[in-house]
């Protein structure tokens, strides 16, 4: 009931009103749905962007931290792989003393050499790129002797043997490392400003032996590592956590050594992963990535702070879009009213014409469609009588043309019957050669006149070629020989009518110069491709003429009528027109190849895709 009333109400309204109402509805509803959907899906976009920002920051911090830790490991590697240092330290560890008058000097020289070499290792490599990176290196021998880059007043290296981690070093072989941290700083000058330190330990063993003759300990201050966390400004709280979820490094020293309590957090991998985790009734983005030390790098970001800037941007965009929508809607209504005003006037004129007044004119003009419609409407009224007269004249001419065409028609069967009658009379008189010539001419004429049969089988086309050759041999003194090598499976292939005859004609006229010779026709199938070749043993072409012909074929350029080529021979088609016709019939899959040498004849090969004819 309500629908019917609505339809009646709309039908009583003007076209302008309905157009404006439809425009408002078609814009208002999709826009409302779009803005609502946009606001809904914005939340996912905000989350994805926050995760992306967190992971980008993690990637940067991971690079800094990894470089710092690898720097420590590289120092241990250099000491372990230095054969000269290893030889001296092994000698001291095994109790081989220095003898002779210079024993004391040699001992001092070797110790000074090792210490300076270690200091050079510290100052080389990546140290230049690290800010305020103070590294403490200790080489502790199994006999209690040691080499260090710091004074014994700072720390006595022998005390390392009492550290909790020292008992774990016996399980280290080769390049296996023990990472220790965080532990209270043992160096007197660092204790006040750097409460924690991190160390990596390597054992020095004889090759293929379990005998440990020394230990390499590389130590840095923990806040030299967490200094990398300050490189990025943001709400992320970065930390290094060991395999037991104990915090190894963090900007807040009170958290170091304490547990990281995050429920249901998946294990870290080499890939950066981010999870949304609730901690103390607040959502956090937890991003983590494993480090080569067995530790992992973790960042905590309050979700509200992570998305606050992005949410602010989306809110501003939403507000801007809504304001623009209102402005554009008002502008649309004004423009619709302006644009439809001429239509209202044109409708009034049409109603007047409907009542029979053909003298009225709309006088609506303009460069747009409505202006042209008004002009055409007025022109239509001006030319009604003229158009009626033109239609009458056109119909009369059409009837006359149809009559002329019917009168001009000739029955082809009459011509064929007359030729057959002539052939029979000639044959009865004993002139078989003339009878055969008339028979061949009749066949060719029938194929030429029959326009309906544009596609024939290959064996029919070869018969046409044989008849054509027979006629040409009767015209000229020297005869040509047609040799065929056609596979059985290609005889029933569908091909365009008269596609071989122009090639035979070109071979006879241009290749053999209408002298005696051999023209060979080959055909075979390869998959869905029919390959047909026409070859003569005539004079051939030089390279310039051959290249010019190939360029014309590649450019699909039809022959110029003024050169006389199209008027020679029986068909008047020419090689280039055959190429164009085959391309139009078989498509771009067709390809014609011309090969020729002076004095060696010419070979034209056509690659013809199978043609399905229904």
Q: Top keywords for this entry?
A:
single chain, 17 strands, 5-stranded antiparallel beta sheet, Beta-Lactamase, 614 residues, alpha+beta
Word description of this protein:
- Strand 6 and strand 7 (247-250) form a beta hairpin.
- It contains 14 helices and 17 strands.
- The model is unreliable at 126-131, 403-411 and 561-573 (pLDDT under 50).
- The chain has helices spanning 2-11, 15-81, 83-93, 103-123, 222-226, 303-354, 369-382, 384-408, 412-428, 432-449, 458-475, 501-511, 543-555, 575-586, and strands spanning 135-141, 146-148, 178-184, 196-205, 212-221, 237-241, 247-250, 273-279, 282-290, 296-302, 455-457, 480-486, 494-496, 517-526, 529-536, 591-597, 601-609.
- The chain is an alpha+beta fold and 614 residues long.
- Pfam families: HAMP (PF00672), HATPase_c (PF02518), His_kinase (PF06580).
- Residues 337-389 form the HAMP domain.
- One of its GO terms (molecular function) is protein histidine kinase activity.
- Its EC number is 2.7.13.3.
């Amino acid at each position: 009931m309500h629908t019917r009333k609505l339809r009646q109400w709309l039908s009583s309204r003007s076209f302008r009103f309905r157009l404006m109402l439809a425009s408002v509805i078609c814009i208002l509803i999709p826009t409302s749905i779009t803005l609502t959907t946009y606001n809904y899906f914005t939340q996912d976009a905000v989350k994805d962007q926050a995760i992306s920002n967190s992971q980008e920051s993690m990637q940067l911090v991971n690079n800094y931290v990894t470089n710092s830790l690898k720097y420590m490991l590289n120092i241990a590697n250099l000491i372990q792989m230095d054969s000269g240092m290893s030889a001296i330290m092994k000698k001291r560890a095994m109790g081989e003393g220095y003898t002779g008058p210079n024993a004391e000097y040699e001992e001092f020289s070797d110790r000074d050499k090792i210490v300076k070499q270690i200091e050079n290792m510290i100052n080389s490599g990546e140290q230049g790129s690290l800010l305020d990176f103070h590294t403490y290196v200790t080489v502790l021998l199994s006999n209690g002797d040691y080499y260090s880059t710091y004074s014994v007043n700072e720390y006595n290296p022998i005390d390392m043997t009492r550290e909790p981690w020292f008992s774990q070093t016996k399980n280290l072989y080769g390049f296996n490392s023990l990472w220790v941290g965080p532990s209270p700083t043992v160096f007197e000058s660092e204790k006040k400003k750097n409460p924690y330190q991190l160390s990596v330990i390597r054992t020095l063993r004889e090759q293929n032996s379990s005998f440990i003759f020394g230990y390499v300990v590389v130590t840095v201050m923990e806040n030299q590592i967490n200094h990398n966390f300050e490189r990025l400004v943001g709400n992320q709280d970065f930390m290094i956590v060991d395999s037991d979820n104990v915090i190894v490094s963090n900007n807040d020293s009170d958290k170091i050594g304490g547990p990281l309590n995050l429920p249901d957090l998946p294990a870290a991998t080499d890939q950066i992963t981010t999870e949304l985790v609730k901690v103390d009734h607040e959502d956090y983005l937890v991003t983590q990535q494993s480090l080569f030390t067995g530790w992992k790098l973790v960042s905590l970001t309050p979700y509200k702070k992570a998305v606050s800037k992005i949410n602010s941007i989306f809110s501003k965009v939403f507000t801007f879009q809504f304001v623009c929508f209102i402005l554009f809607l008002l502008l649309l209504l004004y423009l619709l009213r302006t644009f439809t005003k001429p239509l209202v006037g044109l409708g009034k004129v049409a109603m007047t014409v409907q009542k029979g007044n053909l003298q009225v004119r709309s006088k609506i003009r303009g460069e747009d469609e409505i202006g042209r419609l008004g002009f055409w409407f007025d022109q239509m009224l001006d030319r009604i009588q003229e158009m009626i007269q033109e239609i009458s004249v056109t119909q009369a001419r059409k009837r006359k043309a149809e009559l002329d065409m019917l009168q001009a028609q000739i029955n082809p069967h009459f011509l064929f019957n007359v030729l057959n009658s002539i052939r029979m009379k000639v044959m009865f008189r004993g002139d078989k050669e003339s009878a055969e010539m008339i028979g061949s001419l009749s066949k060719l004429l029938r194929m030429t006149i029959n326009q309906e049969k544009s596609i024939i089988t290959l064996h029919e086309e070869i018969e046409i070629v044989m008849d054509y050759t027979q006629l040409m041999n009767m015209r000229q003194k020297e005869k040509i020989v047609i040799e065929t090598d056609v596979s059985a499976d290609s005889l029933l292939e569908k091909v365009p009518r008269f596609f071989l005859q122009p090639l035979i004609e070109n071979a006879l006229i241009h290749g053999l110069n209408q002298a005696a010779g051999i023209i060979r026709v080959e055909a075979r199938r390869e998959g869905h491709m029919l390959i047909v070749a026409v070859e003569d043993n005539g004079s051939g072409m030089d390279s310039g003429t051959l290249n010019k012909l190939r360029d014309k074929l590649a450019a699909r350029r039809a022959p110029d009528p003024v050169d006389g080529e199209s008027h020679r021979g029986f068909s008047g088609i020419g090689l280039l027109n055959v190429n164009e016709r085959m391309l139009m019939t078989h498509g771009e899959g067709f390809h014609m190849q011309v090969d020729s040498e002076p004095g060696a004849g010419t070979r034209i090969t056509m690659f013809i895709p199978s043609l399905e004819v229904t």
